[in-house]
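Before the break, one more example. Copy the sequence into your notebook; we will annotate it together after we see the structure.
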Amino acid sequence: MVTEPAAADSGGPAYTLALPRRPQSARDARELMASALSAWDLTDDDGQVGVIVSELVSNTVRHATEATVWVSVRRMGPSTVRIGVADRSDRMPIARSEDLSAVHGRGLVLVDSLSEGRWGVDVLPVGKRVWAEVSVTEGGHS
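Here is what the structure looks like once it is written out:
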């Protein structure tokens, strides 16, 4: 995991959506991811993008206190996307359990595994953004 001040915009194309902090927002976040990948002619063959954004939104719903979360997806390269979920809480995420059968505390361990360790936290002027980078397939749609 990497914790650092928010980096300057990488210049890659991105989509962002403000959502209410509630469990049902994970579905809307997955839809944003699917729309962005489709627009960029990319495919998430293994479903990693949907799982990661669901876990990050779920963590925010469980641990943040503000009413809104911000979900983003940015194309970082030809076959890499960065998924981000931001909130106004200054509480840093903690990967709690490596027991994938545990009921709670396994989300960031799963994110770490699916992103092959390419995840981190950007400290924002107010709050933070937890992000993960994932490899996807180019030319997924005809």
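The beta strands are 2-5, 14-20, 42-43, 68-77, 80-87, 119-123, 128-135, 137-138. The chain has three helices and eight strands. Try to locate both features in your own notes.
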